[in-house]
What does this fold into?
Amino acid sequence: MLRLKNKRIVVLGASGRIGFDLCQKLAPENEVIGIARFRDAQREQALREMGVETFQIDFATEDFDPVPDDADWLFIQVAYQHGAEQHPELAEAINVHLPARAMMYFRGVQGVVFASTGNVYGLPGRVVTEKDREAPIGVYSLTRYAGEQVVKFFCREFNVPTLILRYFYGNDERYGIVKKIAEALLKGELPPVWMGTQVNAIAHEELVERTLRAAPHARVPAMVMNLTSSKPYPLEKIIDLVAEELGIEAPALDRIEEREQMTLAAYTPIQDRLLGQTHIPLGQIVKKVCSGLRTDSGRA
Ligand SMILES: NC(=O)c1ccc[n+]([C@@H]2O[C@H](COP(=O)([O-])OP(=O)(O)OC[C@H]3O[C@@H](n4cnc5c(N)ncnc54)[C@H](OP(=O)(O)O)[C@@H]3O)[C@@H](O)[C@H]2O)c1
It folds into this structure.
């Protein structure tokens, strides 16, 4: 299996859920530079202890000048999501201008991995693949789509092999759609309507591992890959599994049209071909997430 080794690798968003774990996995065999604001100083300290060189930069206002530009690989794992509607200028700065600035600054790299999102498909009301046309809705989704276009442009302009990963729904004890469903059920509520009727769910650790395995497939023009569970799950199935794990009765899902229309789920034919199908089963993800919740609420 191809893997990144003996490279100088820059990770933007190194304190984040994915960025941090990428640094951790890459550090033993590579020279890793991790950049973020590091609002959590402990994350920076932990990276330093792994041998990662860190830089505190606010991408909305500061440039890359302090960072050596002679990197081999660039991972862009940053986005501005919550607050995008209220602060479109920040969404533009982080989701569109940052990837442009990063690809210009590190233009000599051998490869770029750009973290995008399934949100670029908008709300298709069905299951999509990479062959489906994007239809972004709202500031977040539009700026992420614009970010992809910028990355595609610089990929061709500088002839830099590039991989655009459209992540959908990573999950672990800290975050994700399974946790949101469990929290809703614990409150006696149904999962919110925006979840649609089918959703993907991939274990966070598998998402990180697949990001690294996918990286050597970067190419010119940029490759776009959906990265999530190889198939979506009916929301009812997740509700049943979560309810069983939490020891509560599964509520019946309302059959409202709005829920159907809000479905955003994916198949992953490119991922499956290059990396094989995802293998951590939904049941295992649910168990892990729910055990964290039971511990949190003192019910373990
Ligand atoms: N995890 C998923 O399931 C999922 C799903 C869809 C898309 N994605 C995409 O994958 C990427 C990483 O996701 P994630 O879950 O790891 O996100 P995350 O945990 O929110 O991490 C975001 C990172 O960006 C940094 N950052 C944010 N604003 C910054 C700024 N102004 N200046 C410098 N650093 C900044 C944060 O660090 P500081 O706050 O310390 O600066 C953090 O390191 C994002 O592009 C996200 O949209 C992830």
Remarks:
- The chain has a mean pLDDT of 95.
- The CA atoms of residues 92 and 143 lie 6 Å apart.
- The chain has two domains: 8-169+203-227, 177-199+230-296.
